[in-house]
Amino acid sequence: MPSRPDARPRTAIPILAAFAAGVLLTLVALHYGHTSARIVPAPSLSTVAPASSSALAAAAEGSADEDIADAWPEDAPTPEQVFTAQPEAMQRALGALAPRTPGKTNIYAIAFGGDGAEDVFRNEAEYVDTLMTTRFGSPGHTLVLENNPATLAKRPLASWTNLEAALDGIARVMDPSQDVLLLYLATHGGNDHSLLVDMDPIPLDQLDPDGLADILAKRPFRWKVVVVNACYSGGYVPKLRGQGTLVLASARTDRTSFGCGADSDITYFGRAWLADGLNATPDFIEAFGKARTAIDGWEKRDALLPSEPQIDIGAGIQDKLEAWRKEASIGPAAPFRAPD
């Protein structure tokens, strides 16, 4: 039976409302001459701002439902078929994981693309697999969970239940006391620090800092890198920090981050840390420093309120990652390309 915190978020409305408010504010700013946030090579602008009324929440919910209904592929399994197929989908995904290489530190990754309404989160989740295979010499060491109309029959959904199953399954393949777990989550975030987990009309519970911390605390992973790429994601740092853990967040606890949206292929943080930073250096911490500098420059250029990405380096994890890099077969850069 999957573990659950007492107060599990069960609705996506607050996050969708916040996203809708951000879009409205962005459109107003652009109409009255606000500088566009579209820069090269950074992705296009999208912000999340706090919702201000129940009417906005209802409008956001209705808009999201219409968008997802329109996006559901006619040749895909029905929502009920997708929902009931998840145990089998997880079994296939876990069965495809490659065994660890004995005698050295291995790295395994779980990539979680939470919002099915925008391809940008799917793109980043799948790119984690590309980096792990090509850049870090670890093929078959990534499990991708994603909500996207194009992959309903191909990959397990990004859901609370599947995340727990993925962690349990990957713990049986790797050595949790010796190897490193990379958990990368990308989606919209609300100012209450909940993460949007959405593939309408399939009912999915939302993630929050307490819930994610509880999920990880109940698993045996000694060495972890947890990356939360979402607005207000700094709210996860206090709950996830600890010995043997590196926590990265794309924004301060009270700030939005940028680069999501229907017209974007990759977020600012995804571009700066995943695509640019980790291709420049395999050092996760050094790549974060490069990413923070790049993001700061993009935001200053476009007169945006700085997102101020956050980092917390737990005792021992920096040395562990250095030991992994010395033993790893670091490959050439793996340029980011959005899936067709």
UniProtKB/TrEMBL annotation:
GO terms for biological process: proteolysis. The chain crosses the membrane at residues 12-33. GO terms for molecular function: peptidase activity. Pfam families: Peptidase_C13. It comes from Luteibacter yeojuensis. InterPro entries: Caspase-like_dom_sf, Peptidase_C13. This is Peptidase C13. Keywords: Membrane, Transmembrane, Transmembrane helix.
